[in-house]
Amino acid sequence: MLLGLYNYWIVVLLMMIGFYIVIAHGNLIKKLVGLTIFQTSVFIFYISMGNVDSGSAPILAEGVARYSNPLPHVLILTAIVVGIATTALGLALVVRIKESYGSIEEDEIQIQDQLTEDKTSC
Amino acid sequence: MLTGIYGLLSASFFVVLDAVDVAFTEAAVGAGISGLLMLAAITMTGRSEAPKRHKPLLALLVVFITGGMLIYGTLDMPYFGSFDAPVHQHVAPRYINDSMQEVGVPNIVTSVLGSYRAFDTLGEVAVIFTAGIGVLSLLSLPLRRRSSKLDESSSENSSNSSQKDQMHEQHMVLRIVSKVLIPFILLFALYVQFHGDFGPGGGFQAGVIFAAAIILYAMLFGLDTARRVFNQSIIQLIAAIGLLLYASVGVVSLFNGGNFLDYNVLAADPIAGQHIGILLIELGVGFTVTAVMIIIFFNFAGRREAQQQATERNSPELNVTQANSTEQKGGE
């Protein structure tokens, strides 16, 4: 009956895809995309925990005995909108970084930072 | 494009899992706005990634170890959909059984969002507002090199914009269809906003849908037209008003002798008070979310146009040669 856990495995798979993108890519936009995927995996984790067999959507109606858990829905509902707002903030930062450094590759930015630090120390 | 599909897929996934409210939000956010923002950012930063200099093997190893440990951790978790999972034992039954008597709203998600966890929602609206301010302050600054040249090239500017208008006019079908669609989208957003007590919906979803309609308008009729219709400073004001409306509902309930954001004291009848409170805070949420989404989009799009104009001005010779080459192609 291990198959009953498949929702967690999907979540872990998605989470690891996102995690891999975040740590393996130097491109800042790709990092943000990875973070978005990571975020979605957490959303799915919460929502799948709130699900109940033969339950219905948590809107009170007659003749419905079981509802799925409304609490994760509330948390994730707000988290999605907050997530897009923060992602937009991150993208705005990336755009500004591109404008001032001329690059959005992590290591190139670090090299430039190193150069300016060396100049100021000399 | 792929993020859009991904968002839509996860939205339908949420419907299957009985989370209609969440699905609603994800459909509007994931399928509409997030893909758009990603595209806007990619056009501004260049689409090609530098070739990798380090091998991804180490990262892959870390990922596999973490994933394996997480999967090992899931072995003790309750099965998917089981009714006696610990999650369903503590807080949720109270919401499901008592929210009708205490709040009087059939949609439990709305009653939890607006009433039981109103303080939490206030914080989240504040986060959205702050993110909007952040985007505004990061992207609305003028480009440094450009600012001095701005006055000289205003005439050039106007010719540019007229060209753009022509470009927008070319998409006749799209424009007419969206002209018909936009009022309905706005109407639907209002329905979602005020019907959130009874069906899936509420301030967050309505705000995003409303913003999507306005973004559609801005995309098809040009940013300048959209800016004329929706004044930027008014939109910023609306974002602040939404948050203030939310917080002031809490303060009013304080003055009426209740706790912060305790709606029972807003009217003589507690249930009526709850209704008024939820309606007002959902309105506040809707205001802020709409305004912040519009601010984010306008700033991204405006930044892009500014960048394009700056590059056009920095390399007029390049443009001329390009124009010549296109003419030659036309001649051939």
Automatic annotation (TrEMBL), chain A:
Transmembrane among keywords: yes
GO cellular component: plasma membrane
Ribonucleoprotein as UniProt keyword: no
Protein location: Cell membrane
Keyword terms, alphabetized: Cell membrane, Membrane, Transmembrane, Transmembrane helix
Xref: Pfam families: Oxidored_q2 (PF00420)
Transmembrane segments: 6-25, 32-52, 72-95
Recorded topology in the membrane: Multi-pass membrane protein
Family statement: Belongs to the CPA3 antiporters (TC 2.A.63) subunit C family.
NCBIfam families cross-referenced by the UniProt entry: PRK07375.1-6, PRK07375.2-3
Protein name per the record: Na+/H+ antiporter subunit C
Record lineage: Bacteria, Pseudomonadati, Pseudomonadota, Gammaproteobacteria, Alteromonadales
